[in-house]
């Protein structure tokens, strides 16, 4: 599996599929693993790396949200202490998420060496600013709704690593599965996080890791711009023109379906707001 980023205390593995990032953070107190994913050989590579470095340290497994591609490595780490949002724990469609993993594996004739199951969470995130301290390692969580309704941001200190899940990618526009207003509110939390924490590395769920706050703010701006432009296109009945937005991205042909889904979601939101 490709290592996207290797720096002191952090290794970011990137899958060949959708440039999906799986992150391993090593502190003096623990190992922190985020969203181990995709192909069986890729999950196995992450598993072997964690086994190599963990020693007697506890392993904490954070799920940024419950999309199937972000939870499918769960079973490979049965001894990990798991963290996710309370909304993720309470999802009533857990069986359908597991079915998505099974369908993916069947489509490509993939076999896994571990059980496929929905994560059981040991620690749930209930509010913005919630902390988990493991010795000198501090995790600070923020709700990140919009992409899904159960996402979280995580800041890992003292290193200043910002784990974003499926926000602020340099290869994707916003994929909105939950609510566009929530998505905007989540993006606007970034300013407060930057002001309150010294960030050294920003890790999106898909795409390129960056150490630049300016780059993060540019990605935030483009994400907000996409939502605002799409909402305006719908309100002005210029939906077909909205597909021109996709040309700024590297894989527009594959993204038409997600863009169309965003159109339908925002149309429904606007219809409800008019009532």
Written account of the structure:
With 275 residues, the chain is α/β, with parallel strands linked by helices. It is built from 8 helices and 12 strands. It has a 7-stranded mixed β-sheet with strand order 1-2-3-4-5-6-7. It has a 5-stranded mixed β-sheet with strand order 8-9-10-11-12, with no helix packed on it. Helix 5 (180-196) packs antiparallel against helix 6 (213-235) and helix 6 (213-235) packs across helix 8. The longest helix has 23 residues, at 213-235. The N and C termini lie far apart (50 Å). The mean pLDDT is 96.
Summarize the structure in short:
The chain is of the alpha/beta class. The protein has 8 helices and 12 strands.
Q: What's the story with the biggest beta sheet?
A: 7 strands, mixed
Query: What Rg do the Cα atoms give?
Result: 18 Å
What is the H/E string? EEEEHEHEHHEEEEEHEHHH
| Helical segment count | 8
State the helical fraction.
Answer: 25-40%
**pLDDT < 50 stretches:** none
Distance between the termini: 50 Å
Shape: globular
| Structure class | alpha/beta
Mean pLDDT: 96
Q: β content, as a range?
A: 15-25%
**Order of adjacent strands in the largest pleated sheet:** 1-2-3-4-5-6-7
- Report the strand count: 12
Which helices and strands, and how do they pair?
Elements: E1 2-7, E2 10-14, E3 21-26, E4 31-34, H1 40-54, E5 59-62, H2 68-71, E6 81-85, H3 86-89, H4 94-107, E7 123-125, E8 130-134, E9 137-143, E10 152-157, E11 161-165, H5 180-196, E12 201-204, H6 213-235, H7 239-242, H8 252-274
